[in-house]
Specification:
heterotrimer, A mainly alpha (about 280), B mainly alpha (about 300), C alpha+beta (about 325), B: about 300 residues, mainly alpha, 16 helices, 2 strands, about 75% helix, globular, C: about 325 residues, alpha+beta, Rossmann fold, 2 domains, 8 helices, about 30% strand, binds adenosine-5'-diphosphate, binds magnesium ion, Carbohydrate ABC transporter membrane protein 1, CUT1 family (chain B), transmembrane helix (chain B), membrane (chain B), transmembrane (chain B), MetI-like (chain B)
Chain lengths: ~280, ~300, ~325
């Protein structure tokens, strides 16, 4: 490596480290803050704690409500994933495999969801969920969330299904395999990459969702973790260490999982650009 | 399968139906399609249409809307100074995204798009904020900006100055919000660019190098033009994203101080939902819808030629 | 055991007519090869027989039974695809078994049939593998196995060997011929390769632009091509065509003679030709020559004649092997 290259490389890494510290410092302060007394946070928010107090973390971990929030989020997210995968893949399969009168129109109709943000319809959605008697149930989040995610899911699924070899269907068809059976026996098992992509993507969206649960969940029993976190923050306004411990404990598992699955998240996100 | 149908469409309907049932074509359509149609209609299209209807009423959400007020809601919204601020803030987010966040993301992508272990670590680090829930990000940064008990307080103590309350400053609070937005989303744009840069054939770059192009020339004349579709897509995400900012604001400023940091969605939430002004809030929703569709249609028309995939 | 009769088959894709009014009978137990250039409609015709495509009009009968409106799985046919179309997520055994399961064949019989197919095709050791773990030739065998377990009356093959390398293709050709002998079902085989057609078929159907040019045994087509198209398509290297007038046969529009039916003459008969390219194959020598008035010709000479590019020869087509065609490209008899 020449001198000039070496210098350039050092400059490059230095710049990257600078940005990395901008990214990491707030999160580090958060994790460490959970071990400190509030007085210590006030004087040295970025320093290592003088003594590592475990009590704040422990008190969160012992709080049944904390686990309740996480469980609610988990069940709702899983519900969204399963429903999206099943309903979305089934519809996409019909569009990919069967041309019938009006199929293009119905397809365009289902893609309308790509055009506008969730928030545009949030008030009527609230009214509808309330009138259906679903407030404070998991379905209040699962159904609208799935419905809004369907457009993207169907688009991604159909693109993938259409790329499966055509003569696979023909061979199975000659063997006497019908359309519905083909969906379950061939299309689904052969589409695990796209199922994983959409599944992970929907999970992340649902896990992190805030506005919809905020609007349709009112009782603490039904809260998802972001709501629980805001609730907790409201209760301990001056005690950052407790809130920070709460934040750390609730986001850590998600971050580990999401980083492991980042490939799928990026694929889902960028795939959303294939419009038309 | 197009061919199967082309032939069949010339047969009488009864025959087509009979055969369709025989091999499950019609059954497949009737079983597999309706769940999606029902779900989508009930929870997307219907609420959306209702937005357009409620927007013309003064209604608190109970009973059915009767107090027809014409376009009064729209007039009130457009004339409302806080709404104007919210729109201005949304535009500011767009500008910051286009002119600070995207260039930053592009520079970083160019620095680390090659597949080496070090680069992989940096990529992971830069992507973490994106993965974080918006609310959590907002909460963490409200801790950072807290001049009483947070990081700001301890920095002020360290340098011996008076603590500064950034989020309480009418002029600077939204700058703080935008800092958080850049922090949160630059990694996402960077990932899009990295994927695109990795798709640029290496021989293109080598050919340019052999012809004597410098590093910056290669970036300028080879790499950036090659990833233009990715840039267009990421700008689209930035604009649509700006229209939707909500979660981050709530823990950070909740729209304050003195309603200076609202976005369109926080405005909708604060003045529509929390006060149960369903008609008023629906009208905000309609405006948001029109904005989003305009952006999407405009974008499709002018930028997204077929296959503009990142 | 069944013959296949196609009556008045037409096929249109939108405004494009791929097959205009086609009649064909494939005799019971024959190995019939549909051959013709790419895009002439062979696959379409095969798919119409299988039921994957419906004809725009016309009738299909298999074993005397009209199956025009019958579901593919009920027609007593099976098909081997060019890409094999093996089910990637199933093992070899499951691939072969799948059709039987769907047909609700009793388990004992299914197992027996799969075992028998595996034995015939030497697949016993691979039954638990997935298609991705097989070589090209093995995949081909699985595809064939999948079709024989169903004991169809008619086997359909759509260019099944075109994804194999040359050596394997020769080997599979032999195996297919043996298969036909051992299970003597009707086989309809599509290819664009006339060598494959000549070696496999007991009957060849030459197609061109959706029409049948000629039907016959391989050597009949070689000896007595009914049209210029068949004459040019069957045989390798291709037959030479010259204007009738140019070689003293004014009554014929076109005269054809095969490269192997040209001799080197030392006397006054024949014509002068300059060799341009010479391919020495050992047993034979193929020479591409330029002849006065006749243009470019191909000749096949015995290997012992040593030739170099740029030499001048005197060549004479053998009179008894001349083929005469009229303005419409139809064969005509000329008294000599
Ligand atoms: N599904 C279809 N739609 C439109 N045209 C088709 C379709 N299938 C085949 N064709 C056309 O029909 C002609 C014959 O095709 P094919 O039967 O596949 O030829 P071959 O197998 O002899 O090469 C071609 O011109 C092809 O483009
Ligand atoms: Mg073909």
């Amino acid at each position: 490596m020449s001198r000039a290259q070496l210098i350039r490389n050092i400059a490059r890494v230095a710049f990257l480290c600078l940005v990395a510290s901008f990214v990491l410092a707030p999160m580090l302060a958060t994790v460490l803050g959970g071990f400190k007394t509030n007085a210590e946070i006030r004087t040295g928010a970025l320093a290592l704690p003088e003594t590592w107090n475990l009590e704040f973390y422990a008190s969160i971990a012992e709080d049944p409500m904390f686990w309740r929030y996480l469980l609610n989020s988990l069940l709702i997210s899983i519900g969204c994933v399963l429903l999206t995968l099943f309903v979305g893949a089934a519809a996409a399969y019909v569009f990919a495999q069967i041309r019938f009168f009006g199929s293009r129109m119905l397809f365009s109709y289902l893609l309308l969801g790509l055009m506008f943000p969730f928030a545009t319809a949030i008030l009527p959605l609230f009214i509808k969920v309330r009138d259906l008697g679903l407030l404070d149930t998991y379905w209040a989040v699962i159904l609208p969330q799935t419905a809004f995610g369907l457009s993207l899911a169907i688009l991604l699924f159909r693109t993938f299904f259409e790329q499966l070899p055509k003569d696979l269907f023909e061979a199975a068809y000659l063997d006497g395999c019908g359309y519905v059976r083909f969906f379950f026996r061939f299309t689904l098992p052969l589409s695990t990459p796209i199922l994983a992509t959409v599944g992970v993507f929907v999970f992340v969206q649902s896990w992190n969702n805030f506005l919809l649960p905020l609007v349709v969940l009112n009782s603490r029993e039904a809260f998802t973790w972001p709501l629980g976190m805001m609730q907790f923050r409201g209760e301990y306004v001056t005690q950052w260490n407790r809130t920070l411990a709460f934040v750390t404990l609730s986001i850590l598992p998600a971050i580990v999982f999401f980083l492991a699955a980042q490939k799928y998240i990026v694929a889902g996100l960028t795939g959303g650009a294939v419009k038309g | 399968m197009a061919s199967l149908d082309a032939a069949r469409s010339s047969e009488p309907l009864s025959l087509r139906l009979r055969r369709g049932l025989g091999n499950g074509r019609v059954t497949a359509v009737l079983i597999l399609l309706p769940p999606a149609l029902i779900l989508f209609t009930l929870f997307v299209i219907l609420p959306l249409s209702e937005s357009g209807y409620y927007a013309f009423f003064n209604w608190n959400g109970y009973g059915s809307p009767t107090d027809y007020v014409g376009v009064e809601n729209f007039e009130r919204i457009v004339g409302h100074s806080i709404f104007q601020t919210a729109v201005g803030n949304t535009l500011k987010i767009v500008l910051i995204s286009l002119f600070i966040q995207m260039p930053l993301a592009l520079v970083l992508a160019l620095l680390i798009y090659r597949k080496t272990p070090t680069n992989a670590v940096f990529r992971l680090i830069f992507f973490v904020p994106y993965i974080l829930a918006e609310v959590a990000a907002g909460l963490i940064w409200s801790f950072v900006f807290d001049g009483n008990y947070g990081v700001s307080a301890s920095i002020a103590a360290a340098i011996g100055s008076e603590p500064y309350f950034l989020l309480a400053d009418r002029d600077w609070a939204f700058v703080a919000v935008m800092t958080v937005i850049v922090w949160k989303y630059f990694g996402f744009h960077m990932m899009i660019y990295i994927a695109a840069l990795q798709g640029v054939p290496e021989d293109l770059i080598e050919a340019a190098r052999i012809e004597g192009a410098s590093r910056t020339q290669i970036v300028r004349y080879v790499q950036v033009p090659q990833i233009k579709p990715a840039l267009i897509v990421s700008a689209f995400f930035a604009i649509i994203g700006a229209l939707q900012v909500f979660d981050i604001i709530i823990p950070l400023t909740n729209g304050g101080p003195s309603n200076q940091t609202h976005t369109i969605v926080t405005y909708l939430y604060t003045f529509g939902l929390t006060r149960l002004n369903i008609g008023f809030g629906s009208a905000v929703g309609v405006i948001l819808f029109i904005a989003a569709v305009t952006v999407a249609v405009f974008y499709q028309r002018f930028f997204m030629k077929r296959g503009a995939v990142a | 055991m069944a013959d296949v009769r196609l009556e008045g088959i037409t096929k249109r894709f939108g405004s494009l007519t791929v097959i205009p009014d086609l009649h064909l009978t494939v005799p019971d137990g024959s190995f019939t090869v549909l051959v013709g250039p790419s895009g002439c409609g062979k696959s379409t015709l095969l798919r119409i027989i299988s039921g994957l495509e419906n004809p725009s009009s016309g009738r299909i009968a298999i074993g005397g039974k009209d199956v025009t409106k019958t579901e593919p799985s009920q027609r007593g046919i099976s098909m081997v695809f060019q890409s094999y179309a093996l089910y990637p997520h199933m093992t070899v055994a499951q691939n072969i078994d799948f059709g039987l399961r769907l047909a609700k064949t009793p388990t004992v019989e299914r197992e027996a049939r799969v075992a028998e197919a595996a034995r015939i095709l030497a697949l016993d050791d691979y039954l638990d593998r997935k298609p991705a773990q097989l070589s090209g030739g093995q995949r081909q065998r699985v595809a064939i196995g999948r079709s024989i377990v169903r004991k169809p009356e008619v086997f359909l093959f759509d260019e099944p060997l075109s994804n194999l390398d040359a050596a394997l293709r020769t080997q599979m050709r032999v195996e297919l011929a043996q298969l036909h002998q051992s299970i003597d079902a009707t086989m309809i085989y599509v290819t664009h390769d006339q060598v494959e057609a000549m070696t496999l078929a007991d009957r060849i159907v030459v197609m061109n632009k959706g029409r049948i040019e000629q039907v016959g045994a391989p050597m009949d087509l070689y000896d007595r091509p009914e049209t210029v198209f068949v004459a040019g398509f069957i045989g390798s290297p291709k037959m030479n065509f010259v204007k009738g007038a140019a070689i003293g046969h004014e009554e014929a529009e076109t005269v054809g003679f095969r490269p192997e039916h040209v001799t080197v003459s030392d006397g006054g008969e024949g014509f002068e030709a300059h060799t341009k390219v010479v391919e020495t194959l050992g047993a034979d020598t193929i020479a591409y020559v330029e002849a006065d008035r006749l243009g470019e010709l191909t000749v096949r000479l015995p290997g012992h004649i040593r030739l170099k590019a740029g030499e001048t020869l005197r060549l004479a087509p053998q009179d008894e092997y001349l083929h005469f065609f009229d303005q419409n490209g139809q064969r005509m008899e000329v008294s000599r």
